[in-house]
TrEMBL record:
It comes from the Bacteria. This is Asp23/Gls24 family envelope stress response protein. The keyword Membrane applies. InterPro entries: Asp23. Pfam families: Asp23. Keywords: Membrane, Transmembrane, Transmembrane helix. It comes from Actinophytocola gossypii. Belongs to the asp23 family. The lineage of its organism: Bacteria, Bacillati, Actinomycetota, Actinomycetes, Pseudonocardiales.
Length: 133
């Protein structure tokens, strides 16, 4: 989980506020970016992601929250300001898997950096299935 402060720290004054970015927020941003990439049909959790997703969703629903979709993305904080993201996708057979994977890496890294201010060290892409339309 990343903890940061406002830009007031650069002026030598006390921070105006503190923000916290959790791995589920980063995963939601990654999923949102991934599904917008041409050639990606859907983001789909593997077995490990499915178990974690069920637990997280149940916990949030008990609290009365509507969870953002994070299934199919996993996030690991390398340092407080740096993450590794893994995304599991199903792609169209009409597109080159390599091209879709590279576009997906760029889109996820850019969206996570822009939305959270975190540095993205790596975006791993797993193609779980290819569907021929």
């Amino acid at each position: 989980m990343d903890r940061g402060t406002s830009d007031a720290r650069d002026t030598g004054r006390a921070p105006l506020f503190e923000y916290v970015v959790s791995s589920s927020v980063v995963a939601a941003v990654a999923v949102h970016a991934a599904v917008a990439v041409p050639g990606v049909l859907r983001v789909e959790p593997g077995l490990t992601g499915l178990v974690g997703s069920v637990v997280r969703t149940a916990r949030q629903r008990i609290k009365g929250l509507e969870p953002a979709p994070t299934e199919g993305a996993r996030v690991e904080f390398v340092r407080a300001d740096t993450v590794r993201v893994e995304v599991d996708v199903v792609i169209s057979g009409q597109d080159q898997a390599t091209a879709v994977g590279h576009a997906l890496q760029r889109a996820v890294a850019g969206a996570v950096s822009e939305a959270t201010g975190l540095t993205v060290a790596e975006v791993g892409v797993s193609v779980l299935d290819i569907i021929w339309d």
